[in-house]
Amino acid sequence: MSERVPDPALHGSVRGPRAEAPVARATSRRRVTCLDLDRPTGIGGALELSGRAWDFEIDADRFPSVRETAALRAAVDYHRGRVLTGLETTPAVPELAGLVGESAISGFRGRLGAVVAGGAVRRDTPLVLLLDDVPLGTLISGHAVSAANELDPQSGTASTGYVPVGDQCAGYAERGALIATIGVRGRSPVADGPVAPRIDDAFGRLPGPLAPHSMRRRRRIDRWVADGAVHIDAMFRDTYGRADGVETVIHEYQLAVVADAETGVIREAVATPRVLPWFDCPGAVASAGRLVGMAVAEVEARVRREFRGVDTCTHLNDLLRSIADWPVSDGQVPVPGR
Predict the structure, then answer these.
(1) What pLDDT shows up at residue 82?
(2) End-to-end alpha-carbon separation of the chain, Å?
(3) Single pTM value for the model
(4) What is the average pLDDT across 204-213?
(5) Residue 6 CB partners (closer than 8 Å, separation 6+)
(6) How far apart are CA 60 and CA 112, in angstroms?
(7) Which one of 8, 47, 146, 320 is least enclosed by Cβ atoms within 10 Å?
């Protein structure tokens, strides 16, 4: 089936997903994560999360070698409180057992942060980046529920239960197109994004096809040093497997950052939207520029604390935060004071 034509007054016109991954630079690092969100027993059943992550070192001949890997499997009782009912990780971290039985969304990152602060796992590992995506992954999986109900309103499947709040982000601007549409329809519309190009950013480790009504979040973070500066090229993509077997892009952003190699202070930060679901979402693009003047090590905490409201985007914020999860032990990204 070909791409469906959206209503530009509601969905906007940012619908140009990247067609291929950039070529890895010589003498660089690349981190890739992939988190799948599936409901194998049906759209009304439990949510299962399956994720893989890789850290690659790229040598002078552009040959990649794997430095570190991670994996997770988790289960969430989505329709009864979004409770995390099971979690297994590789490498195993026994202290993560305390996350089970609690919400997979509300307070999850705080509880994960306590495990990190306790020394059970380093913040800069690919496993922690995977775990950090559990709350937003669980949240965006609601798109699959809404899309299934849109196709079959008589299915009897419970709704997501999500209540939109005006001005919580650019897409949900109180006076914007999405909130106005919800006011008229009495429910949230369903975004139908462009067809997702297959991109290989993990050196042959492409994920398989998405099952119908499944979701996927992918990340790539490239890092290298040149001319006295640390360069970061990062992106994320959220996709949905439609009932007809077509994988479509719901969100996609790219981020380019340049930081001083001595101080770690960010000189440049530019976000490029590739695919956005709602007309008003581009209102958040400029927020990336607020990273300028921050040290890389400050980004995670300051974005969580300061980047809120109608000129920000929840998903872009996560992309901004991801650049702080840098393996500082390899000496490529300085931490002020060290």
Answers:
(1) 96
(2) 55
(3) 0.93
(4) 91
(5) 15, 191, 192
(6) 36
(7) 8
